[in-house]
TrEMBL record:
One of its GO terms (molecular function) is zinc ion binding. This is MYND-type domain-containing protein. Keywords: Metal-binding, Zinc, Zinc-finger. Pfam families: zf-MYND. InterPro entries: Znf_MYND (IPR002893).
Amino acid sequence: MPFEPETFTDACIAREYRTLRILDELASEASVEQPVYTDIDQQSALAKIIDILDDNGSLAFASLISDPPPGALAYDGHLVSIIIVSLDIFAALSNAAHFPHNRRLDMTMRTLWPHVVRWGAVLHPARGRLIRAPGDTRRNVTAVVQAYLSIFKTPDIAYLRCFLHGNPDAVAQTFELWLRFPYHCLKSAIQEASRTVDGVITLFVILDNILLNYATTTDRALFEDELFLTIGDLRTLYHTVSRQTRFLVELTVKSATACGHWSEHFSLLARCLCVCLPRCPRRPRVPKKAIFSIVSAAKLCVKIQAPRDAALRALGLLTSLCRAVTSNRPLAHAVDAGVFDLLRDLGRPSSDSHDVTEFIRQLCGGLFHPRVSRAFNRRHPDVPRVAPSPARAEPGHIPDWQDVALLWSSFLRPYVEAYDARSAKLTTSWRFTTACLNPCGPHNRLVRVCPCGTAFYCSGSCQKMHWPIHREFCCADQGPWGSNGAITLDDAMFICVLARGYISFLRRTMAVEIAAMARSRPDVQISIRIDLCYDVLPVPRHTIHAYSEDAMRPVHGKVMVEALLRVGAARPRQPLPFGYALEYFEL
Ligand SMILES: [Zn+2]
Ligand SMILES: [Zn+2]
C-alpha cells in the first residue's frame, strides 16, 4: 500500500486503519489465481476476510459505511484519509472477489457498492470541486477510479446494470472523471497518471459496451442523458478533444508504454460527439486546436506503431468533426495539419477501413471548394504523380491517398492554379460563365456579381437598373446561393468555373445524349448534374437529367447545370447560375 497516513489521533479511526491493513494483506493472499480448493492458506485467507467483515466490532469500512458529514469535509483530513484507504482496500478485496473461488466474498463486497458511490460523489462531486486529503494532491482520484473499476469489472453485468440504474451518480461520476482526467492527473508522475487515465478510459469503455450490447431505452436514457449533462455543450466537448489528446500525446512522448488506449480514446470522443450533436441545435465552430491535436496524435500513433486501429479511429473522429458543421472549415484545418501525410503513412487500407474511406470521401468532396483546395495546394505543393489505372475506377475499389493525389494532379490542380481566388472579381475566369443580366446596354465584360452568387453584371449601373427585377429572386440575405454560409462567394465562383471547364472539356460526349433527349422530349428542361460529392474518384462524373419545365426555376438557356456538393454535414444539390443554349451541344 503506497499510502501512509499520519498517525490517527482518533482511536476509532486508528483501529479501523489497523483492520484495513490486515484486510489488505489478506486480499493479496486471496488474489492467487492458482490452486482453487487445495490451498489451505488461501481458503483461510478468504475465511479470515469474511470473518473480519462480518464482525461488527472490527470496524472494517466503518467510515465508508457512515454517512458523509454535511459540509466542512474538506477540513476533516483524517476522515478523508481513511476513506481513501478504505477505497483502496475495497478495490483490492473486490478484485480478489472476482476470482471464481472467492465468490462468497463477492456478495459481501456488493453491499459496499452504494457507499463507494456515495463517498465517490463527495470526494469527487460531479460538476463540482474535488476534495483532496491534506498534503495528498491527486491520489484520491486514483482511489475513486480504482474503486469504481473494481465494481465495473464484475462479471455479473445484469446486476451491475440494476445497480447503475439505482445509483445514477456512479454513471455521472464515471463520465466526469473521464471528461476531466487531464486536470486530475499530474504529468510528472507518469505511472500514476497513466494508471488513472487507463482506469477512466476503461470505465467509460465498460459503460459503452453495456450500452452497445444490452441497451434498452431506459439504459440509453440513463447513459446518454448523463453523458450529455456531464459534457454540457459542444464547446466543452471540443475543448475536451484537444485537451485530452494533447495530454495523452505528452504521456506517450514521455513513455511509449504509458498509453495503450489510443483507439479507445478516439472512439469514445466520436461516441460523445454522436450523443451531443442531435441535442445541440446550435453548432459552434470546431476549433483549429482540436483538429490539429487529433492529426498530430494520429501521426504519433503511426510513428510509435501503436495498433493501426488508433489512426483509423482518429480519421473516424475527424470525419465526424468535419460533418458536425455545415462548412468546410474543419476539413481545411485538417488539411493544414497534414492529414494527407497521415493518409500516406497509413498506406494501402485493408477492406475494413471504413473510417479511411469515409474520410477520403469527405476530403475529396471538400477539395472542390477553394478553402480546402487552397490549403491543400499550400501544404502539398508537389504531390507525387500517380498513374491512372482502370482498377481505380472499379466499383469495389477502396480509395487511398493515391486516389486523392490522382484527383488532385489530374483534375483539380489546373483549376486551382488558374483560379486566382484572391482577386476572383478581377480575373477573367468567371466572367464568361454567364451574361450580364441587364437586358439593355453594351455588356462586353462582367465585373460584378451580386452577393447572392446568382446574378452577374457588367457594371454597377447595370446592377442598379436590374435590381427591381432581381430583388424578387435575390437570396443574398441567406448568403451566397442561399446556403446560410455553407458556401462562400469564393466557393460559388470556383465551382462555376470548374463546372464550366468540365462541360467544355466533355461537350462532345454530352452532345450525343443531350441531342437524343431534346429530340424525343422537346418540352423538358435538360439538366447536366455534375457530381462533386459522392463519386468523385478517380475524376468527377456527370449525369444528364430531364425535368418537366414547371418543376424548375427558370434558367437562362435550355440546358441547365447542377452540382452535387459536399459541405461539412450537408450535401446540397445546387443549381448553378448559368445555362447553355441547345446549339452549344450541336456537333
Ligand atoms: Zn450590363
Ligand atoms: Zn442577388
